[in-house]
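>> Question from a student workshop board

For tomorrow's exercise we were told to take the sequence and the ligand below, predict the bound structure, and bring the output to class. My setup keeps failing. Could a helper post the expected result so I can at least see what it should look like? The ligand is 2-acetamido-2-deoxy-beta-D-glucopyranose.
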Amino acid sequence: MAASFLLLLTSVGLFLSAQAQDCSKPVGGDNMDLKGDDILLQTFPDGIKVTFACNVGYQSVGGSASITCTAAAWSPLRMTCERKSCGAIGDVPNGQVDYSEGIQFGDKLTVTCDPGYDLVGNSIIQCGHEGWMGRLPVCEVKHCDPPVDPTIGSFYPVKETYEYREVIQFSCPEPFTLNGSKSLSCSETGVFQPAAPKCVQVECKEPVVKFGHWDSGSRGPYTYKTTVMFKCNEGYRMTNSATIICGINSQWEPELPKCEPVECEEPVVKFGHWDSGSQGPYTYKTTVTFKCNEGYKMTNSATIICGSNSQWGPELPKCEAVPAVQTTTTKSPESTTGRGHFNICLVRGIKDYSGMFDLFTVQSLDWSLNELLTLIFC
Ligand SMILES: *[C@@H]1O[C@H](CO)[C@@H](O)[C@H](O)[C@H]1NC(C)=O
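>> Workshop helper replied:
Here is what the output should look like for this input. Compare the format with yours to find the bug.
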């Protein structure tokens, strides 16, 4: 009984001491785990050696992967794991590889094709445990279908299909004119640009300009880009372009010249006024005659004519103040006393009082404009 009790105590003691020597589950570094079935255990007996392995996508960059349990403690783990790198994948002709996310495990690269190229394959490839998971796509050049055969005219070269950037040239037989672009290019969207031209027959009508006449240029037939210059008849003036060009739509461009009757501006004569003639509108060859206001004298022609250039000719009448002239005698009214009888031959000024006066009469005149008045005694 006692022996068996002792035995029990011993086995308990052994069990306890064995428990005290065991290690608990070791904790590894980042991105690693215990290798094999060890991962299932919770306690590890004294003296056992376990090995760590890097997780998928990671690789050891040195240091021992094994540790040993000694008296309930694990030896230090030296191994470190680092994300695997897939490296560069290579170039894609006519495309770009975007590695901006990185080239390590889990990173993705993106391939894009240059304008005018189509991507065939996968544009996104991920970096896996064993390298890039997939093949690079290819960038295939875009193609354009040939344009629809024109009814008139042709293009060159003729092919079943055209590659991006290829150019074709159109031409028209005589007497047709190409309406549109002569050359088309296979664009990056896979269609020819710009739109295909057409061969059109251009002929403009005989241009008729009212109050005008042919001046120079073509006499017809009026084919594409034919030019004619017009002039207006006398007394008319051009209000738009004198030159017209036969356009692609068989219309004259910019538009037929317009001849409008000439008109002169309202004539304004300073210190003068209308006397006779037209009072407007002042068309070509209209005449107006002016008179100067009192105290002013006309120094050029009183009559003007509206010229073909819309200008009055010869020039607008000019009215100038009559200049004051000094007394041309030694005698003057002031020096005379009484009612002497001086004959005055001429009184010039604002009013023309020429004539024979005696002094009394002279004194009774309106002298308010004295400065402009001159008495010439005789
Ligand atoms: C020429 O082309 C223009 C632009 O496409 C079009 O508007 C015009 O009608 C064409 N003219 C003729 C005579 O076909």
